[in-house]
Structures are given as structure tokens and as C-alpha cells.
Amino acid sequence: MTIFNKSLFLEKKEKNKKRKNSMLKTVSADTYDCCRELNRAFGLQGGHDGRRLPKGGVLLRTTLHCAGRGLRHDFRRIENQKEYPQNVEFPPIQPKKKKKPYPVPLKKIQRDARENKRLAELGIEKPLEPPKNGLIVQDLVPVAHEVLDAWKSLIKGLSQLLHVVPAHACCECTEIHVAQTGHQIQDCEGSSSMKRRSLHSWIKASINDILVPIESYHMYDPFGRRIKHETRFDYDRIPAVVELCIQAGVELPDYPSRRRTKPIRMIGKKVIDIGGFAEEPKKQCNLSSPSSMFDLDTHGAMTRFPPPSESDIPNIAQETMTAYETVGKGVRELMRKYTVKACGYCSEVHVGPWGHNAKLCGEFKHQWRDGKHGWQDATVEEVFPPNYVWHVRDPKGPPLRGQLKRFYGKAPAIVEVCMQAGAQVPRKYIPMMRLDIIVPEGEEARLVA
Fold it and tell me: Which pTM was predicted?
């Protein structure tokens, strides 16, 4: 029978307490807060326990990292790692038999809806700021002009580069490959892919395969009458980027837009003052002067621009890369203010505060919606899709193999075309291209595959 010795137990407890306190040091609360913020900023794992002393001191472990002279260099290194990681995963492919996720959290949508409903019940007008009230944002007008000019340069440069850079498209699916020959990766999802063991059937790619045409209805008054299914042919279809620039302040003679001087007024979802409906001015057919949409559309762009000379190819490639970056940056900036809607099931996009009522959706469960689109807020990738393709390090080398696809990287199709033409690739695309991964060759490739 073991006899409990209270004095021996208290003595051991006191020794353990002294040993634990020797591993801790007391600092002031201000020093603790400063070091904690530094550790959080630098991502360092400094252990601590949050016990406070009676006089305001805090007990910290000796492994707590403190500020020093060399932290400035470490901060830059860590920030660069966060901004440009070594490798990133490929963007996920959304399943066709499922609705797209909301770009805005559902909780925020429900919270805003409850707030609008509460204001409507009280009879209070909904506070609207430009451009939600129909007025244009004057600060974004130069951005819209810059995006439109870059869009013209992008179409022109890409059309010229496709004369000298070989690009292939699958005639059964949407796969694109930029190289001398098509790849041998078995991921075709076409109707007759089973006969070809999921291998692609390659043909020569066009500019619409590289620069995916996302079109939208042009409306003279985006806040006016909605487009119905019966009246959909009364409206022109133009690129969504061009329609976004028109609503942001760009004036095109062939596609006029209503410029309000007084804001609209809304209570909840009901518009109480829209300034009256305005009829769109009729177009004047003038065959002598070229249309303003001639340089803004990809239709027939390959025939309009001849092949460039060999000495001009690097400069054209770099200008096209710059134009691609300008369009992407400008569209992102415009979409922070101007509303763009996208269907949650198909690729339809509408630039305006509300979506149209044309029954053209044929994707998942369209019978339940009578062909109507499931509108939600659009993302930049839906208006200006990157269209990722496999990155080829040696365009004239052997074709890519499906057994080694985990060693390959990806890049936007326009970036891949410009890079093979001699342009310098921006750093943000390098992590997805996986340039630091060595692709196995010879006997090593056979063993890995």
C-alpha cells in the first residue's frame, strides 16, 4: 500500500514550477503586442501562452522572435514569396452538371437583401451612387478609353502573330494547343472521342479559338425595358468588353448610349423615377465610311492584317502582351463599379444592372427554368476568359505525352502565343507554367510513366 507524502509532493511541484519559469521571461504588454504583430507579419511561429501577470506583464517563451536589424530583408523575401509563389495549382474546371459558385458570399447577398427590404417597408429610398443610379463615373472614362484602345491592339497583334506561330484547335472540344504539332494527352470530351481513345482531332486554330468571343446585347438604356425573348433580334450583339466600355463613357457613333443628367430613384427593387423611356436613335446606313465596330470585332481579323516581317515579330509580341495585360487590368477596374451579370449555368454575359429575359439557356436543368438564364454577378474570367493551354518549353520538340502531364504547366493562350513569338512573360504567370520542374526524358520518363 502506497502512502501519500504531502511534503514530497509539494517539493516536486515547486521544482517543476521553478523549471518552467526558467524557460519563460517576463516582458511588458507593449513589447508583447509589438512582437506578436511582427511574428504575424513575418509568418514566424513564435510560441507563447497568453497568461498575464498581476502587474500587466506577459509570459512569453524564449522562442519568441523579436525585431532586429535583419528583419527588413526577411520581410521583402517573405512578401515576394507570397506575391509570386514557386508553383500554383491549375484553375479548377467547373462541372457542367452543377451551378457555378457565387462570386459574392451568399451571407452577404442575404444581408443586403434584408436591408433593402427593411428600407422598402419604411418607404425610404435606396441610397445609390454612380453608376448604380444611372450616372457614369467620370474618373473611369479614361480607363474605358484605354481598355478600348488596348482591345484594338490586342486583336491586331494576335491576328498577325497567328500567321507565324502555329496553333491547333480540337474540332470536337474546346482544347487549344500552341506548338508545331498537337499534344497526345488523352482528355478529349467530344462526341466521338471514344473512337479515338480520347485523343484530340487537331485542326488549325483561328483567332476566336485563342481569344474566346464573349458577346453581350447592346442596349441604348441599360435601365430601360428589359430584352424579351420575342424582341431579342432587335438588339445587336457586340463583344462584352466593348459594351462595358460604352456604358463606362466611350462614345461610338454606331452604338449610342443614353447619358443621364439626373439619377434614377429606387425603393427596394422598384424604380420610382427612371426619367422616362427614351427611344434609341435609328442607325444611319452609310456604306462609304467604315463601321466603328470594324476594328473591335475578331470577325475576319486574320484576313485584315497581313503576316508581319520576321524582324517585327518580337516587338509585335511584346505590344500584344502589354495590350492583354491592359485589357485585363482595365476590365477588372471597371467591373468594380459597373454591374455585369453572368448566367450561373452557361457562358452568357449581360452588361447592365439586370439580366435579359431571352430564353436561350440550354445547360443543366434548363427545362425547369423554361430556358431562362440564372443570373448572378459576373467575374472577370467570365467577361475576359484567360483560356488556359498547356505550356510548351520546346515548340519544335516532341509532342507532350499524357503520362507526363503532371510535370507540365499551363498559361493563358494569348500569353503562350506571345511567349513563343519572343515576348517577355510577366512574373505572375511563371508559377503556373512550372518552369522549375524538370520533365523526365529517356529511360527516366519510361520509369516515371
Answer: 0.78
- Distance between CA atoms of residues 154 and 148, nearest Å: 10
Stronger pLDDT, 381 or 50, i.e. the higher one: 381
223 and 271 in contact (C-beta within 8 Å)? yes
Weakest mean pLDDT among 15-29, 46-60, 342-356, 401-415 = 46-60
**Contacts for 48 with CB less than 8 Å, ≥ 6 apart:** 32, 36, 58, 59, 60, 61, 64
State pLDDT tens for residues 186-219. Answer: 989 888 888 888 899 999 999 999 999 899 999 9
CB count within 10 Å of CB 412 equals 18
pLDDT digits (tens, 9 = 90+) for 130-162: 999 889 999 999 999 999 999 999 999 999 999
Alpha carbons 423 and 400: distance in angstroms, whole number: 22
d(CA 177, CA 159): 16
Q: Are 188 and 172 in contact (CB under 8 A)?
A: yes
Cα–Cα–Cα angle for 22, 27, 28, rounded to 5 degrees? 155
Q: pLDDT by residue (tens digit) across 9-19?
A: 677 777 776 66
